Amino acid sequence: MARRINRRKALATMGTVGALGLAGCTGPLGGGSGGRSALTMMTSTEDTAAYQMSQGLAAVVNENSDSIQISARPGDGAKQSMRLLDSGEADLAYTDTLNAYRITNDKGAYGDKPFDNDIQQVWHYYDIQGGLVTRESTDIRTVNDLAGAAVSPNPVGTAMRDVMLEHLSHADFNLDDMQELALGYGEEASALAEGRADAVTDIRINAELTPSYVQEQYSIVEDAWLIGWPDSTVSSIQDDDTINGSYYDASTMEGPNYGDRTEEWWTDTVYVTFVRSEMDQEVLSEILTIMWDNVESLTEYHSLASAWQKKSFLSGKLSPAIPIHPAAKNFFDDIGADYPSS
């Protein structure tokens, strides 16, 4: 198969990995079955795509490796999974790159409770695109018009809210002049329709999956208008290494009215797999090689895993502000994938 890399090359120097007993290899499960190194992967709750994808990765690695056993376990979300990674109760975890930047730089909540361990990026897990919509009857056309508006920038506690607010901090108004609402995703459509909110969110996953609540939103609010991002605001965002965003074609992000625009800027909440920096390179190399060689099997657990067969997807949106694990760099070099220098 043309896309396959040489697994022998990845394993040539490994010997018997189960006997290494290195930090990051023998996880909280202790010794694995038959001498395998046991690892724990934490993502999110059982009803999420993130957890289902981790289940698939664990099953495929366990089937194809004689030396590694991964246990995929549900958790309360990305922030908790990263705390468990730091404490050694997990060996692989995921979070968005903005939260990871705050972790690595002791920002926000991590100023008072910093991590004890250094974390490093491995591969791009998936991303969530975010837009803001209003009704055509309002005077809001771009994010610069949001001063004085009642806005739901995603539910409280979500990574998407943090990313949206960070994007809006680059707009030409003071965030303190915007009323931040605390609505759940299922509440946004009625709030917009009834005038309790001036702007609410639209999200997509990997720019292809539209959540059911978003579909319902556009069946309730027929005159929804996608709020624009002026060029000067986008330029400022693009100079900020801590956040991501992209222009997406209107034909691929259907639902709201774009007016005469053929594309618009959407925020990207980029979720990445992380390990502690001490994670053994040979173990991580084997995991990445098995993942790359068996993407078709991974899609049986969730269709979003199909993106992992694209070189540019695996590495292209990694943050230049956070270190990448050496094993991941070697893997990207082997498959010919570009990645940001960090």
By CATH, the superfamily of the largest domain comes out as Periplasmic binding protein-like II
Mean pLDDT: 90
CATH architectural grouping of the largest domain: 3-Layer(aba) Sandwich
Query: What's the helical proportion of residues?
Result: 25-40%
Summarize the biggest pleated sheet.
8 strands, mixed
Fraction in beta strands:
15-25%
In the predicted model, the low-confidence regions spanning at least 5 consecutive residues are 1-32
CATH level-1 class of the largest domain: Alpha Beta
Structure keywords:
eight-stranded mixed beta sheet, 2 domains, 12 helices, TRAP transporter solute receptor, TAXI family, alpha/beta, two-stranded parallel ribbon, receptor, globular, 342 residues, D-Maltodextrin-Binding Protein, domain 2, disordered N terminus
Give a written overview of the molecule.
With about 350 residues, the chain is of the alpha/beta class. It has two domains: about 5-125 and about 270-335, D-Maltodextrin-Binding Protein, domain 2 (3-Layer(aba) Sandwich); about 125-270, Periplasmic binding protein-like II (D-Maltodextrin-Binding Protein, domain 2), CATH 3.40.190.10. The chain is built from twelve helices and ten strands. It has helices at about 5-10, 50-65, 80-85, 95-105, 160-170, 185-195, 210-220, 230-240, 280-295, 295-300, 310-315, 325-335, and strands at about 35-40, 70-75, 90-95, 120-135, 150, 180, 200-205, 225, 245-250, 265-275. Helix 6 (about 185-195) runs parallel beside helix 7 (about 210-220) and helix 9 (about 280-295) runs parallel beside helix 12 (about 325-335). The chain is globular and about 65 Å long. Keywords: Receptor. This is TRAP transporter solute receptor, TAXI family. InterPro entries: TRAP_TAXI (IPR011852).
